[in-house]
Design the sequence.
């Protein structure tokens, strides 16, 4: 599979602050690549460098083989962008916003008219096409911004927090469109705070913290790799002391949750045997027993907090 | 792609920005009224009671109309678009920085020319005889382009998102330029120090050209007026693009 985005040693400083610190990664064509991180981790700075809005202090970034610093026009021509801090022109109608962006991407008039009609229909904005964007809700504006990002039929789509603050219906629609675009070959570079969204949409995820890549892998591998976050949820027919269970080998943490106890372990198999032994030796019956992989949110928190504490 | 093809393609995208500017910023009633009324009232304030003929008044009036209309909106566009977060959308589109700002300059130019045609038309209706319409037209085109470039240059620094800040700072430059430019009195009637100051303002050369076109008298020769106006225009045009290239990223920090 060829490479859609190649980032090497990318660095950006703002005064004494290093917003992006020598990061390197690749995004394959046809992938949905998630870029996660807490506020101030450097996500937006990275996406601004990749979309040619700001220049890096060090390193390189290429989009479909075009260096964003050396060939910015060629690189931007094949992108669709939904910037986090972007807006449509509120004093223009939805239609005129689309025509403007179409012209800025050099889309011929006939094509941009056809595409604008299709996109507005698809995003449920056709009936409002002649109204000024000033009167649009946040969800409608975001749908229009996505239409604007798609008017040039991009090979790669950069989405910076596309569903942030949206109503459920608009967020769902945008997620479905992302999946649909990806299914016809578009590469998607997505930054989000929403772990569930990242988990459901992304083929791979990079977790950024303090300007550095803390982890990069598939959502499932990230969860599996965080062995200390694997856990067993157990309940007995008698109440037990969490402190007793904390003595079980390989246990890293014990948490009482109502009538259940959650035991975090680095070796679920060994811990499972110990729990059975414990139940037998105390003449108790096990009511429920579940082995749980960590959620992406737990992995994210662990990775970002570890670095923060470090 | 050959560089000439890229240039023409970028120029077409500049026109898209020009259309957007005209739709959003220039085609508003208050902007048009301001463009017409403000230079007229400022001019009347300085000429009423001086018993001058229409031929003597007109070069100053057309000079002020061209200057104030071409510089009226340009400085506010960039801070406004920074604030409304539309500048970031433009910056990530496949349009060169020169093409973005040339589009803004072109919008100011079109607005300046169209509004300045109104006092020109009035002058013709009331019987002001224009001896050299070609020189006046050429001067108007050069001067409007020059002032439109100046208007975009005025928004370079500080890279703020507050339009009022830029408008205030640009007024600090625009008004002194008008007062030193021989708009209210012919240059030859000014004292030596004022003549030196007048030579530093591009408006001086357009007003001088307008005097020549209407009265056949000018302080500088027509070729000097045209060459100096073209020089000012080139300097403003190139420096506004170069300086915006330098300071634009600061607007996204």
Sequence:
């Amino acid at each position: 599979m060829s490479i859609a985005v190649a980032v090497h040693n990318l660095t950006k400083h703002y005064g004494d602050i290093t917003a992006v610190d020598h990061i390197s990664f690749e995004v394959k064509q046809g992938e949905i690549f998630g870029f996660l991180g807490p506020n101030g981790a450097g996500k937006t700075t990275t996406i601004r460098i990749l979309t040619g809005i700001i220049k890096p202090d060090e390193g390189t970034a290429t989009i479909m083989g075009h260096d964003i610093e050396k060939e910015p026009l060629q690189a931007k021509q094949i992108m669709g962008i939904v910037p986090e801090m972007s807006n449509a022109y509120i004093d223009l109608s939805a239609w005129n916003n689309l025509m403007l962006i179409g012209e800025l991407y050099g889309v011929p008039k006939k094509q941009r008219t056809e595409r604008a009609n299709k996109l507005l229909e698809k995003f449920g904005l056709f009936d409002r096409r002649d109204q000024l964007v000033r009167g649009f809700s946040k969800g409608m504006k975001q749908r229009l911004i996505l239409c604007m990002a798609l008017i040039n039929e991009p090979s790669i789509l950069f989405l910076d927090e596309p569903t942030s603050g949206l109503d459920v219906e608009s967020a769902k629609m945008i997620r479905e469109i992302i999946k649909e675009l990806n299914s016809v070959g578009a590469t998607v570079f997505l930054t989000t705070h929403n772990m569930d969204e990242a988990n459901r949409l992304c083929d791979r995820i990079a977790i950024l913290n303090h300007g550095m890549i803390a982890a990069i892998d598939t959502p499932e591998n990230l969860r599996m790799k965080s062995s200390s976050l694997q856990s067993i949820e157990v309940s007995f027919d008698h109440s037990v002391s969490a402190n007793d269970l904390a003595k079980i080998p390989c246990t890293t943490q014990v948490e009482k949750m109502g009538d259940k106890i959650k035991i975090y372990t680095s070796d679920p198999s060994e811990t499972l045997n110990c729990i059975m032994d414990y139940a037998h030796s105390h003449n108790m019956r096990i009511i429920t027993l579940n082995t749980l992989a960590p959620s992406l949110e737990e992995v994210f928190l662990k990775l970002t907090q570890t670095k923060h504490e470090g | 792609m050959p560089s000439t093809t890229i240039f023409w393609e970028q120029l077409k995208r500049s026109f898209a920005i020009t259309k957007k500017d005209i739709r959003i910023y220039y085609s508003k009633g208050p902007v048009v009224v301001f463009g017409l009324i403000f230079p007229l009232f400022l001019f009347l304030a300085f000429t009423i009671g001086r018993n001058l003929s229409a031929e003597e008044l007109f070069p100053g009036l057309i000079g002020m109309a061209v200057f104030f209309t071409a510089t009226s909106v340009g400085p506010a566009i960039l801070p406004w678009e920074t604030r409304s977060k539309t500048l970031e959308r433009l910056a990530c589109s496949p349009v060169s920085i020169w093409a973005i700002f040339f589009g803004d300059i072109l919008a100011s130019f079109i607005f300046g020319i169209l509004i300045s045609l109104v006092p020109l038309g009035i002058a013709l209706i009331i019987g002001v005889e224009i001896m050299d319409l070609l020189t006046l037209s050429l001067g108007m085109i050069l001067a409007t382009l020059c002032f439109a470039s100046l208007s975009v240059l005025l928004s370079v620094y500080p890279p703020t998102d507050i339009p009022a800040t830029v408008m205030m700072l640009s007024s600090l430059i625009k008004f002194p330029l008008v007062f030193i430019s021989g708009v209210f009195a012919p240059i030859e009637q000014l004292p030596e120090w004022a003549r030196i100051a007048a030579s530093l303002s591009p408006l001086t050369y357009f007003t001088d050209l307008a005097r020549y076109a209407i009265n056949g008298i000018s302080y500088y020769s027509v070729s000097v007026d045209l060459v100096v106006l073209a020089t000012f225009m080139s300097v403003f045009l190139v420096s506004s693009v170069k300086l915006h290239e330098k300071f634009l990223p600061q607007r996204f920090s």
Summary: Chain A has two domains: 3-224, 227-293. Residues 29 and 85 of chain A are 26 Å apart (CA to CA). Chain A touches chain B at residues 14, 48, 51-55, 72-74, 76-77, 79, 81, 83, 85-92, 96, 100-101, 103-106, 148 (CB under 8 Å). Residues 3-224 of chain A form a domain with the Rossmann fold fold (CATH 3.40.50.300).
